[in-house]
Amino acid sequence: MYNYKIFIAYDGTKFNGFQKQVLHPEKTIQGKLENVLSLLFKEPVQVIGSGRTDAGVHAKEQVCNFHTSVPLPPEDILTYCAQYLPKDIAILNLTLASPRFHARYNSSRKKYCYTIDNQFFADPFMLKFAYHIPDELNVEKMSEASKRLIGTYDFKSFTSLKSKKKSTVRTLYDLSITKDNHLIKIYYEADGFLQHMVRIITGTLIEVGLGLRQPDDLTIILQNEARSTAGPTAPAHGLCMEKVYY
């Protein structure tokens, strides 16, 4: 079996997330990729992603791999995919990988970015990629609050995951916030992320920026280990997977 490693980017606006679903698999990133690749290789192809992204979430760099018994030159695969994949999915690079490479299990950390459009009128060119908040946010307070979350903690308060069997402990290596004119970007880098974790942390930091919470509240929320104590889940369209590390 041949193992191909692919780097992809996508606009997640029209998709029900990365992971293929039983109903309407064609509305997912994984489903689209598997359909096109299966037709090309004339055999079922299973695409493995480095991680799942929710419906409406984007990716600048998602890493996947797939196995096939048919060897084809990477340039032939790229040419075929360029013709048959929808324009909101792009393959950035495709190479043969070692037989043991696994896009999910071999990843060491992932980086996400959440973008906020912080001005009175929404930027019409950012409507699909930034969460518009017309009220001015206090970025200094948000940055101060974000420091409370860097490290290894139980992030149970910041996930909608219901299972009690799965660990909710994660290591957040970096959480930094930048502002360039009206665009605020919140960067997250961790060994892994729980369901809705980035979006719930973002929603909580936004409350700090609006003066509805204080930076020290983040420490209390962590200690409470209860989803009800954290802020709302920020909309999906402001979130983008930036990079996967191996």
Short description:
This protein has helices at 29-41, 74-84, 139-146, 197-209, 217-224; strands at residues 2-10, 47-49, 58-68, 89-96, 109-117, 131-132, 151-154, 169-180, 183-190, 239-245. The protein has 246 residues and is an alpha+beta fold.
How would you portray this structure in words?
The protein has 246 residues and is α+β, with helices and mostly antiparallel strands. The protein folds into two domains: 2-96, Pseudouridine synthase I, catalytic domain, N-terminal subdomain (Alpha-Beta Plaits, 2-Layer Sandwich), CATH 3.30.70; 109-245, Pseudouridine synthase I, catalytic domain, C-terminal subdomain (Alpha-Beta Plaits), CATH 3.30.70. Helix content is 22%, strand content 30%. It contains five helices and ten strands; from the N terminus they run βαββαβββαβββααβ. It has helices at residues 29-41, 74-84, 139-146, 197-209, 217-224, and strands at 2-10, 47-49, 58-68, 89-96, 109-117, 131-132, 151-154, 169-180, 183-190, 239-245. Strands 1, 2, 3, 4, 5, 6, 7, 8, 9 and 10 form a ten-stranded mixed beta sheet that branches. β2 (47-49) and β3 form a beta hairpin. α3 crosses α4. It starts with a strand and ends with a strand. 35% of the residues are buried. The mean pLDDT is 96.
What is the fourth-level CATH superfamily of the largest domain? Pseudouridine synthase I, catalytic domain, C-terminal subdomain
- CATH class category label of the largest domain: Alpha Beta
What is the mean predicted local confidence, pLDDT?
96
State the low-pLDDT regions, or none. Answer: none
Q: Percent helix among the residues?
A: 10-25%
How far is the first residue's CA from the last residue's CA?
A: 22 Å
The ordered string of helix (H) and strand (E) elements is EHEEHEEEHEEEHHE
Given the helix and strand composition, which structural class is it? alpha+beta
Tally the helices. Answer: 5
What's the gyration radius in Å?
19 Å
Shape: globular
Q: What proportion of the residues form beta strands (DSSP E)?
A: 25-35%
**Largest sheet, described in full?**
10 strands, mixed
* CATH architecture label name of the largest domain: 2-Layer Sandwich
Structural domains: how many: 2
- The CATH topology assignment of the largest domain is Alpha-Beta Plaits
According to DSSP, the number of beta strands is 10
